[in-house]
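During the second half of the funding period, the structural biology subgroup turned its attention to how the target accommodates small molecules. The most pressing case was iron/sulfur cluster, which had performed well in the primary screen but for which no bound structure existed. We therefore specified the complex as follows and requested a full 3D prediction, including the ligand pose.
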Amino acid sequence: MSEAANSETMDQTVAEPLLECDGVYVTFPRYGAEEAVALRDVSLTISRGEVLGLVGESGSGKTMLARAIMRLIPQPGAITSGSVTFEGTNLGELDPEALRRMRGRDIAMIISNPRGELDPLQTVGQQIGNVLRYHLDLNSKDVRERALDLLKQVSIPDPQRRLDAYPHELSGGMAQRVVIAIALACSPRFIISDDATSGLDVTVQAQVLELIRKLVSERDTSMMFITRDIGITAHYCDRIAIIYAGEIMEVADRGVFFDDPLHPYTVLLLAAFAQNERLRRYWLGEDKVRENSGPSAVGCAFQNRCVRVQQRCLAEHPVLTEHRPGHFVRCHFPVERP
Ligand code: SF4
């Protein structure tokens, strides 16, 4: 049984969950050493129509969680424990063909490198058409009409002409819009946006974020919005989860999360976001070494950077616990408001 299953409750939201990760572990074998744990005891639920922000620094496990949901863990890694359930189906029980059908049709992903995602040798229309043909039984005329309609929905300028354009003829913002159009092509019920706007300049980034949020809310699609920027989640997410060293550290509704954070790492992130240097230094314990310290393998993963660390944190691994209704934290000594 997962650690979180021992916690007070696993039900992180009152609405019916569309997607549920329950105690997911992803590990990578290492020659002559203990296996590397990329995800540890990840339990999360996402409701229908909900946008969950997943925030973490580079290497924290954000993309690995996206890959675990899509069942696309790079070899030789594997999900070694736990389950991912989508609309009541345990994805671990699907055969490879059923998983291929699910990807793109039910669950789609928007990634941060649109140029890497798009085939340089195929036109925009062909690439949208490939997805439509694979998942839907449409003739060529309907495919073209549908592709054109999708380009209009993502506000591509001159969509008729762009349909026959190659990726190198598109700007970065336009290429990202095409990737969004491909993700939306089959009206998936769940979308994972993995740092989808990080390569774009600030103005285009805001436009693309607005577009994603609008399209998701119009279609009542659920989304996991992966980002390193905690500020973005304040505008675009209903709930926010913090991930550190492959573990979910805190989950709460947006308002509660920003008003009343419980985990010391969340407080540190918020202080950095608010550019409150005094507060940030306080939560680092005035110790520059802490800032770059890596996660600990024993006890709390965050102990090397935590100003509140105590003896118990060094020995006992904290579990994700519902501290208040709907507000989960993985910490022995959560931050209490003064
Ligand atoms: S368990 Fe201890 S070390 Fe870990 S975040 Fe909480 S107070 Fe800090």
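Two results from this model are relevant to the next phase. Residues 114-187 form one domain. Confidence is low (pLDDT under 50) at residues 1-10.
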